[in-house]
Amino acid sequence: MSLIVTGSIGIDTVQAPTGNADEVLGGSAIYFAAAASFFCPVRLVAVVGEDCPDSFMETFKQFNVDLEGLEKRAGSKTFRWVGKYHENMNQRDTLEVQLNVLAEAAPPVPESYKDSKYVFLANTDPVNQMNLLKQFPTNELAVADTMDLWIETQKDELLALLKEVDGLVLNDSEAQLLTGKSNIVEAAEEIIDLGPRFVVIKKGEHGALLQHIDGRAALPAYPAKKVVDPTGAGDSFAGGMMGYITATDDHSFAGIKKAIAYGTMVASYNIEDFSLNRMSTLKREEIDHRLDVFRQMLQF
Amino acid sequence: MSLIVTGSIGIDTVQAPTGNADEVLGGSAIYFAAAASFFCPVRLVAVVGEDCPDSFMETFKQFNVDLEGLEKRAGSKTFRWVGKYHENMNQRDTLEVQLNVLAEAAPPVPESYKDSKYVFLANTDPVNQMNLLKQFPTNELAVADTMDLWIETQKDELLALLKEVDGLVLNDSEAQLLTGKSNIVEAAEEIIDLGPRFVVIKKGEHGALLQHIDGRAALPAYPAKKVVDPTGAGDSFAGGMMGYITATDDHSFAGIKKAIAYGTMVASYNIEDFSLNRMSTLKREEIDHRLDVFRQMLQF
Which among B264, B221, B202 is positioned nearest to A217, based on CA atoms? Predict the structure, then answer.
């Protein structure tokens, strides 16, 4: 089975109580694709500028990711993000954003990708997500991410998208904003009424809630002592989840629940270092080992 | 096995988006004892004033709680609390507190209670908790609750208490305040270094973390759609947990983990109505049924 992800690649600068990382590889698509590649081959559609260092591509070639859909655009600059984490690593400020090439035309989808069965529309505006979705007419499962900005500025377009996708991934405050429900179980049920067959509400260090047409589940996060850089936690979570769904071709309630457990494990490793540093050395056996620990933790 | 709880009984007034409750039975010891009584007989040491309505005692007699240690003090007034929940039910303001009889001498512990094996010291100042603890010299397991006020004003006394108890129950912000660690796994480990064999960090709607000398576990809360009044959630959680530990006489890591799952279930019912209304009609079979649902939710 084939998994495709569309999203951003960025040059990130991160300041944290645990240290700093200057101009490192980042972006939602990068974290997602690296995480998913532990489970299945990943196709990537994304665009960078001509300033994107070759070393980034070398790093990325370590992962099982097809880069045919990665455009390096002459005359353009790569997306840049500067963020600072507080002493409490759950809070961060965005100090600077340069959209650069992300504000230009979307990268083309290679013809060879158009038969993709599993599609993840990483966070971007819902019109763009809808346009991308239409290029995978034979998809079996399409899942979108979104954020507060689009809920506030393009809600109608987002609601139209929700009628077309099978799943939605978003965080708890976004789910509350989208539905006006402060109870996230109620918010999750309301999102199902808007179209998707399932929604995964991410709660960061508090885990995730799955509402599926066939059931509901809540899983905690892995209780991580080593948190160096939370950047990409949500994207690597979604990547691990979609990678496992694709590998197993199982998007039943039970299948997605297990996929969420895998996503939780990959995210728990990702936050142990800056950028892709931890995922670059991570082995599938380590993921499976931690999953066993997690499973035992939840048995009583 | 015998479980004893010492703590407050109050006349509560609760304002919530879901409705209001005026002058209803409340207090940490009440919620704890009612919750624990689904699993084992409970001994209660607490004091009320002469204004405490007889109807409160009638309500309480429905539960398997020994009231020999409940003093009704002539000339004194019962503790009163007025609280208001925000639209987001996880936030509340305390509008009024009248300590009344709680500011007077502690109620005496009946001689017949002094052989209690399981002891829960509900939230009060640590000097008072230490004095109470000394009255159960043959206890097998003593667990204390605490709060930010004592961490800030009587930290030395609290640290002395932590060397004498087997377990501590507190919420995440309190654990962070006590240890200065923002990562709650680190905070939990540091609390173990302060003396207790285990600590349970409560995260409200996000579940609980158990750090035990023999292991660590995180469990989510039960994803509750019906939340009418969160008052007493933490106390009923602790009551269910201690009740199950007492009934099974098992305070191993695995035993406490299962006890936390039971505490989670009782708390999830308690918040479905004001005061003890839901626990008054709750059956043990309902608790066990929801535990089965919860267990399946956590299997993948």
Answer: B221
Q: Does B203 touch chain A (CB under 8 A)?
A: yes
Which single residue is written with the structure tokens 């009060």? Answer: B124
Report the candidate in A178, A189, A173, A181 with the shortest Cα–Cα distance to residue B17. Answer: A181
Chain A residues whose beta carbon lies within 8 Å of the beta carbon of residue B294 = none
Full DSSP string of B145-207: E--HHHHHH-HHHHHHHHTT-SEEEEEHHHHHHHH--SSHHHHHHHHHHTS-SEEEEE-GGG-
- What are the tens digits of pLDDT across the range B102-117? 999 999 999 999 999 9
> Which residues does B282 contact at the CB level (< 8 Å), separation at least 6?
B38, B266, B269
Length of chain A: 300
Partner A contacted by B221 (CB < 8 A): yes
For residues B116 and B68, the answer to whether their CB atoms sit within 8 Å is no
Position B75: which residue type?
A: G
Residues of A in contact with B261 (CB under 8 A): 300
Structural domains counted in chain A: 1
Mean pLDDT computed over every residue of chain A: 95
For chain B, percent of residues with pLDDT exceeding 70: 100
Q: What is the 3-state secondary structure (H, E, C) of A141-192?
A: EEEEECCHHHHHHCHHHHHHHHCCCCEEEEEHHHHHHHHCCCCHHHHHHHHH
* Residue numbers in A near B209 (CB within 8 A): 223
| Contact residues on chain A for B220, CB-CB shorter than 8 A | 206-207, 218-220
B86: nearest CA in chain A?
A182
- Give contacts of B222 with chain A, Cβ < 8 Å: 218
Burial class of A93 by CB neighbour count within 10 A (0 to 12, 13 to 18, 19+): exposed
Contact criterion met (CB < 8 Å) for B209 and A227: no
Q: In Å, how far is B254's CA from the nearest CA of chain A?
A: 7
Per-residue model confidence as pLDDT tens digits over A21-60? 999 999 999 999 999 999 999 999 999 999 999 889 888 8
Residue B67, chain A, CB below 8 Å: the answer is no
Assess contact for A223 and A268: CB atoms under 8 A.
Answer: no
The sign of the dihedral angle between the CA atoms of B273, B277, B279, B285 is negative
Which tokens go with B98? 């009248």
Interface size A-B, in CB pairs within 8 Å, comes to 84
Whether residue B132 has pLDDT greater than 80 = yes
Q: Which residues of B touch A203 (CB under 8 A)?
A: 206
Contact B32, B9 (CB under 8 A): no
User: What residue type is B224 in one-letter code?
Assistant: A
Nearest of A297, A269, A217, A218 to residue B210 by alpha carbon: A297
Taking an 8 Å cut-off on Cβ atoms, the answer to whether B299 and A297 are in contact is no
- Record: contact A89-B182, CB cut-off 8 A: yes
Provide the CB-side half-sphere exposure for B162 (13 A, CA). 24
Instruction: Locate the chain A residue with the closest alpha carbon to B228.
Output: A183
CATH code, domain carrying A134 = 3.40.1190.20
A247 contacts A288 by C-beta, under 8 angstroms: no
Domain membership of residue A29 as a residue range: 3-297
pLDDT in tens, A171-211: 999 999 999 999 999 999 999 999 999 999 999 999 999 99
Query: How many whole angstroms separate alpha carbon A141 and alpha carbon A162?
Result: 13
- Taking the CA of residue A102 and the nearest CA in chain B, the distance in Å comes to 35
